[in-house]
Each structure stands twice: as C-alpha cells, then as structure tokens.
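Troubleshooting log. The previous structure file for this entry was overwritten by mistake, so regenerating from the original sequence record. Sequence copied from the archived sheet and checked twice against the printout by T.R.
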Amino acid sequence: MIKVAIIGCGGIADYHGPHLVKLPDVKVVGTCDVIEEKARSLAERIGVGKWCTDYRELLDEVDAVWVCTRPSDRVDIVTAAAEAGKHIFSEKPIALNLQDADTMIAAAKKAKVKYMLGYCLRFWNPYKLLRDTFASGELGDLVGCWTRRYMPGDMSGSWFGDQKKSGGVMLDFGSHDVDWVRWVGGDVKTVLAKTFRIRPGIQADDHGAALMLFKNGGMGYVEDSWSSWVSENTVGLIGTKGGMIVGRDDVVRKKIGDEGPEQIVDVEAGMAIDASGHSGKRDDSGEIQAVTRRGESIYEHFFRCIEEDIEPITSAAEARKTLQTVVALWQSARAGTSVDLSETM
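Regenerated output below.
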C-alpha cells in the first residue's frame, strides 16, 4: 500500500482527489492547504480523515506527495518532500523559471525519489493515439505536428491572470501542447513565437502561438488562447507516408499514401499500439490486434514507476525541457525574432 498526501486543495485537486482514492493499493492519508477550509472540504468529499494547513505534518505519514499548488508556491514543498525521501507528483508546469526547476530536480535526484509532472496529454486520446501511431512508423518521418486549443475565459480576476504567478496562457495552459509536440518531434532547435494580452485589465499573456523546428527534422506548431471568444480544439500530425487529423468534431481521420480512402479511426481499437510505439500483432487483413498493455492512466503510471523503479514518461527532466522551450517562446515574442536552442537542449 502506497500512502499519499494531497498538498494544495484548489480546483485541480478537486479533479485529482476522487481519482486517487479509487486506486487499489493506494491510500490518501491527508490533505493540506494554507486555507484550512479548502483542505477540510476536499478531505470530507473524498473520505479522508485528516487535513491540515502545514504540509510538514503529513510527510512522516506518507510515501508520496501529490502537489497541486500554484507553480509559484512549489519549490519549498517539492524540495522538503524530496529531502524527506518522498516520491513527488506535481501539477504542471514544473516551475516559472529554470533556476527553480533545477533546484527541485537536484533535490529529487539527490534523494533518489521519483519526480513526475502532470502532463496528461501523453496519457489522453486522441493525443496518445496520434503520437503512438507515429512512433510505430506507420506515418513515416515527421513533417509537422500541431495543436490548437482555445478555452475562452476571463482570467483577469484570478491568479491565472498574473504573469508572475501563472506564466500566462503559454505556460499554464499551452505548455501541455508544447510538451505534446516535443513528445512527437523530440528536442527543439528553433522557436519563433508571438504572444498577446487582449482582455481589458489582464496582467498575463492570454493568447499565443509558436512555431518550433526540431533537431531531428520536421516542425511543430501550437496556438493557445483564453481570449479567443470561441472554443476550438484540434490536433494533427503529418508524416512522409501519411497523416492523422482530429477536428473539433473529435473524429480521428487517417490516410496512408495516395491509395485507398481516408479512414475514420476507432480510438479504442486504435490503441492496440503500446506506449513505446510498438504495433500490436496484425491479422491477415493487416488490422492491428490488441497488445498486452493497452495503456494506463497518469495515476496508474506514477505509482507503477514507484513500484517498478522506472523513470516516468513525464519526468521532471522532460518537464524542464518543456519549460525551457516556453522560456524561449517568451524571448522570441519579446524580441520579434527566432530563438536558437540547439546548443542548450
């Protein structure tokens, strides 16, 4: 039984908590928030008997911590947990700057604990399906991959609307997309970006876009918005042998080469490609059959990494590269020129 504490009981903890308490061989022993009512409320909703306002009260009772605080408030929590020998799951982004990220990574490395970030697109369809299909080689070499996610909302009255606390839309929200295109294309060589502050009174970037060239070839594009007025969620991947596109209707379309019709992909059936990109066994018609491991949730993956002593898919090192790419994005947007990462990533 792995014992875990939830630290930070705001909106995202309301999402994580009910999932954690349903896991076999995992026990949530306590919740913590600097606002006691938030800690108590979450504990009561998910059936946990202990809550507190000082996370240090829980460290002696757990094997791992689930950190859901604002990124500006995480450094002391993560380093203290690491020094106490506790495994760490933290919401994204890893930090607001590379110095803080390096401090936490060093503490976790010294303590030899797992340190995983909540970049959930690597575990969700259709993002996982597209990446794993590409990794299987079916689509050929990468030409381009992209996401466009618009989630309109006025953030000016919350901490999301403060660049110093959230990093703005391209870090708080858009780093999910930067992380996904990096998962597909690998390390980034060059970034060209533009950001905007559109809503009245906003103190953070609320719309942005970036074009990335990868060291291994191909390109990635992300565009994210809190100020788009209309919603949008599309993703796609084009290779030298074929492509896959998902429109706002959530229909997954795939075509290989010039021959044959465009296919509508059944996402569940398509997941007969495992997390390392290996295709399942094909039948006589060429259809991929199921593989032993059809995938796992972000929760299952974290605890399996602890039990099997393996590196998380969304490791702190990967999260640092995503942060480094967003920092370059900010630099490009300010300077109006591309930024070269080839010597630093």
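The chain has twelve helices and 15 strands. Archived copy saved in two places this time.
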